[in-house]
Write a structure and sequence with these properties.
The protein is of the alpha+beta class. 19% of the residues lie in helices and 18% in strands. Among the domains are: 40 residues, no CATH class; 63 residues. The relative contact order is 0.09.
């Protein structure tokens, strides 16, 4: 397997050795790409679980970027001339910014407004009045509480107004 890059756009490609010296259209930019007789050392064949059985050609920089971004796992495989190796073994443990010179920009956070100015910033209070329900009661489809689950809200008349009709009837 010969691995090489498009000279115009840098997209990695692969070809069987029997096609060395021929031409191949780039799948990214469409330009005709010459197939070299030897693989480009800046390219590798990567097998990602659940994707192509033969692996996907990628540049080493593309592999590092995808590792940092989490698009490739340390356990995905890379072809190393004679065998498949885990990416972690071939590239080492690549973490954010290590060995790549890549840095993810952090968003500058604005200071939060004081709680008295922002009513939404008040902390949430835990739910009150929550009752545990036994597994048997759940199986029956009802809870263990007696009476209604929810109290109906009824209009309550003022006590003085309610006492006046009672006194008039007496």
């Amino acid at each position: 397997m010969i691995l090489f890059r498009c000279p115009a756009c840098g997209t990695a490609h692969r070809a069987d050795p029997q096609y060395a010296g021929g031409m191949l259209p780039c799948r990214h930019c469409g330009q005709q790409v010459p197939i070299p007789h030897a693989s480009d050392p800046a390219c590798a064949l990567v097998y990602k679980a659940g994707e192509s059985d033969d692996g996907v050609p990628m540049t080493l920089e593309e592999i590092r970027v995808k590792l940092v971004a989490g698009e490739l796992a340390d356990t995905d495989l890379v072809w190393d001339n004679s065998t498949w190796k885990p990416l972690a073994q071939a590239f080492g443990a690549v973490r954010e910014g290590e060995n790549t010179g890549l840095r993810l920009k952090r968003r500058e956070e604005e200071p939060a407004a004081p709680a008295e100015d922002n009513e939404l910033a008040a902390p949430l209070t835990p739910l009150g009045g929550v009752q545990k329900v036994s597994a048997a009661a759940l199986a029956e489809g009802k809870n263990e509480t007696k009476g209604r689950r929810f109290q109906l809200l009824r209009r309550q008349e003022p006590k003085a107004a309610a006492a006046a009709p009672a006194a008039a009837a007496a």
